[in-house]
Amino acid sequence: MGTIxxxxxxxxxxxxxxVVGASWKGIAYMRSLPQKVRNxxxxxxxxxxxxxxxxxxxxxxxxxxLRMGWKLYAHRQSPINAAMSYTIANAITGAYPNxxxxxxxxxxxxxxxxxxxxxxxxxxxxxxxxxxxTDNSGSSTAQQTDKALLAVVNPDKSEAVFETAGAxxxxxxxxxxxxxxxxxxxxxAYIGFIADDGRDLANSxxxxxxxxx
Length: 213
Hints:
By secondary structure, the chain is of the alpha+beta class. The protein folds into 2 domains: 10-36, no CATH class; 43-211, Immunoglobulins (Immunoglobulin-like). It has helices at residues 43-59, 63-69, 79-90; strands at 3-4, 12-16, 19-24, 27-32, 92-93, 100-101, 117-124, 128-134, 147-154, 159-163, 173-177, 186-194, 205-211. Strands 1-2-3-4 form a 4-stranded antiparallel sheet, with no helix packed on it. Strands 10-9-12-13 form a 4-stranded antiparallel sheet, with no helix packed on it. The mean pLDDT is 90.
């Protein structure tokens, strides 16, 4: 039951029918009660929740990287939500309930900066992933001072190793060491670039699935 505090024309506190009255910093306001969902587990809802859970498990380990890599696309949402929305719409394969992530369609960064050229990732003994790329500084928007964004993702463990301020574009190479308990497992590698002043980013490039040893 609601209580009128300042007469019939004043605000009220509590619930009256489907309306709730309250105040915030002395300002009276009303809001409607949320409608109950008759069947919260319809098949479309289960499908969407399944896609969301799968995508979150893949992307969440890279949250610190995605905050930077997707910042230009965070319009009225967080960078991680922007990455989530894109991945759910473009990188889910299969049919419910057997969905899978197409790792080749995932982006760790997006922007108009020139992407990596002739990039590759190879595993070497000791749990090291070696990234290599051609220095294309001076071509289009590419600059020597652009910093590499690197990611090695282990979806089986829902873990990732990433670099948000890697070697310069002119360096052409960088090694990333992964955890020892990843040995023998398949990982996915990505490379992107961010301008030295942080104002632009490159669309990331998927470098394939490799086995760590």
